[in-house]
Amino acid sequence: MIVAMPPLFGVLFLWGLAALVGWAGPPPWELYLSPDLSFALYKPGDWSVSVQPHSNGRSILVVDPQSGATVTMTLITTSDQSNNSVGFASRTLGNMRVQIPALKLSWARSTADKKRTVIETTVQDSGGQRRFRGYFLMDYPTARFWGYETRAADFARLQPALLNIVTNLTLLNQSELRKAAAQRLAPKPLPLFPRALGDGSATMQVPSGWTFQGAQGSALCLGPDGSCGFSFGTTTFWGPSNLPNFNNSSLPGLHYAYMQPLEAVLVIMQQVGTHSIEVEQRWVNSDRAQQARAATNRSAQSESGLLHYRTRSGLATKGYYDALAFSPLPSGQWMVLFWGVWAPQATFDSWLPTLIPMADSYRINEQWASNYIQQGLERLRHLMAQTRAAMADTANYARETNLAIFQEKMRSGDYLDYKRTSMIRGEQEWVSQVEGGALYKSDSWGLSRDGQTVVEGQDANYNNFRGENPVFRENMTPVDASREVYESVFRGRP
C-alpha cells in the first residue's frame, strides 16, 4: 500500500537526511564530466560511471567496485500527462520482479498530488540481504527515477555517499560547454612515446597512459577512458562461391556479398555494438586503389569517410576511416584492410593534433600498407585545418584486358600443366593476400617461403596443411584453386 507523504517532500530532502545520518566521508571525491558533456556529478574516485541509452531517455549508473553499491539515475520522456508517479513506480516494480522474483516491497509512500513516490525493497541472495530505495518524480513530459542499492548491512554507512551522488547530478548545456571545451582543449599534441605489439609485428608512437595491443599486424590503441583511439586491421568476408563443389558457408569470417570499402567498415563497426552511424563526407581514392592492384595483382577499391556514430555505451563519437577492399576470388573470399581514428564528437577536432602523428607513426611489415595510411593522412590533415571542408576525389579507375582467342588455349594449357606437375611432385603453393601476394609452398618436408623453411613437420606438409598463414591472421588461397588465381599470381613473373 502506498501512503501519503508531506507535500514539501522533494529532492532537497536528501540533503537534510544525509546531514542527519552523520556520515564521516567516503574516499576522496572527484568531479566526473561525461565525455559528451551532457552531465556532471561528484563521486568517490574509484567508483565507475556508465550510461545505458533508452529509446526515450537514458540511465546513468554509478557503481562502487568494492561493495557493489549502485546508484541509478534515469531520465525519460513520458506521454502520461496525469503526472501519476504511483503508476510509474508500480510499473518499475513489476519489471524488477520479472528479473528478481524474490524481491519484496518493504514500504511505499507518495505525496498527495501523486507526483512523487518513494519505495523500499529487499531481496535475499547468496551474499545476504540487499536493500534498495527508489524515488519516482513525474513532471510531464519528463519522468525521473533516482535509486540506490547496497547490502543491508552497509546501507546506513553508505547512504550519505549514495545520496550525495544523486543530489549532485547536473544536466549541462552542451552547446555552451562545447564552446568552452574547444577553447580549453586547444590543438596541442600530447607527447608520444614508442610502443610495440607483443609479437613485434607493429610499432607506434603512443601518449603516456594509453593502451596499445594487438597481434599479427592488427592493432588497437585507446585513450585512458576509451573514448578516443586508433585501430588498424583486416577482416575476411565470404561472398557466393563460383567454384564447383565448394561451399564456404562454414568457413570463419563475415558472410556478406562484396560491397564498397566504407560500407564494409560500417558492417564491421556494427559487429562491436556501434549504432546510429551517419556518413558526413565520403571520398573515393582511385590512386591508392591502383597502387594496391599493382602490389597484389588483384582488383581493389579504396574509400575514406568522416563518420558520426554512437558507441555501445551511447557516446556520441566522430571518426575518420580509410578502407581498402579486394575483389572476391572464385572461392567467394574477399577482404578489407582498414584503419581509423576517433574521439568524442564535441572534441574530435581538438584531438587531431595528437591522433594524426600517432597514425602517421604506425608501422607494420608491409610497406605498401604503411604508405597507404600515410597517404590517407594528407586528407585528414586538411580536415584538421578546415573542418568539414568538402573535398572531391571521385575519379573511378577501370581496366579490362582482352586476349586473342589463340592465346586462350595456351593459358589453359599452362594452368593444367602446373596443376598436374604440382600433384605429381606432392607440392602445393599458397598465396598470401596480406603479404602482398607472397608465395608459400607445402611439400613432404613442411611449409617454406622463398626456399626457406617456415614450419617443419607433418602438420605443415602437402597432405595436412590447410592454408593458415603462420605469421598473420589469414587463410591463404591455393594457387591452383582456379585458373584466375593462378594467372593473378604468375602474370608478369619470370
Search tags:
disordered N terminus, 494 residues, Protein Transport Mog1p, Chain A, alpha+beta
3D structure, described in words:
By secondary structure, the protein is α+β, with helices and mostly antiparallel strands. 27% of the residues lie in helices and 36% in strands. The chain is built from 10 helices and 26 strands. The strands form 5 sheets. The chain has an 8-stranded mixed β-sheet with strand order 1-7-8-9-10-6-5-4. The chain has a 7-stranded antiparallel β-sheet with strand order 14-15-16-20-19-18-17, sandwiched between helices.
Largest sheet: 8 strands, mixed
| Mean pLDDT over the residues | 80
Count of discrete structural domains: 3
Helix content: 25-40%
Strand content: 35-45%
SSE map:
Layout (H helix, E strand, L loop, with lengths): L1 E4 L6 H10 L7 E5 L5 E6 L3 E7 L2 E7 L6 E8 L7 H15 L4 E8 L4 E10 L2 E12 L2 E10 L3 H14 L1 E2 L2 H11 L7 E5 L5 E6 L3 E5 L2 E5 L6 E10 L22 H11 L3 E10 L1 H11 L3 E11 L5 E11 L6 E12 L3 H14 L1 E2 L2 H19 L19 H21 L2 E5 L5 E5 L3 E4 L2 E5 L20 E2 L4 H8 L4
Parallel strand pairs: 1-7
Antiparallel strand pairs: 2-3, 3-11, 4-5, 5-6, 6-10, 7-8, 8-9, 9-10, 12-13, 13-21, 14-15, 15-16, 16-20, 17-18, 18-19, 19-20, 22-23, 22-26, 23-24, 24-25
Short description:
This protein has 494 residues and is an alpha+beta fold. It has ten helices and 26 strands.
